[in-house]
């Protein structure tokens, strides 16, 4: 059986912290910014931890 390949697209979107948590950029800040209040766009800056519901899926895609 060949080795499992990691999903390169997911590898570009998330990263692991030193303690093993999975973090990514906040979603919703790419388009339609004219209709969003600036307070909301400021909240969307920075990195956040991936939701607990998605962590298992992300780990499987990264084969880690």
- The global form is elongated
Can you give the helix content as a percent range?
A: 25-40%
In the sheet with the most strands, the strands line up as 1-2-3
Percentage of β-strand residues: 15-25%
Structure description:
Helices cover 36% and strands 16% of the residues. The protein is built from 3 helices and 3 strands, in the order H-E-E-H-E-H. The chain has a 3-stranded antiparallel beta sheet with strand order 1-2-3. The longest helix is centred in the last third of the chain and has 11 residues, at 52-62. The chain is elongated. The mean pLDDT is 94.
Q: How do the strands and helices of this protein lay out in sequence?
A:
Elements: H1 8-13, E1 14-16, E2 22-25, H2 38-43, E3 47-49, H3 52-62
Antiparallel strand pairs: 1-2, 2-3
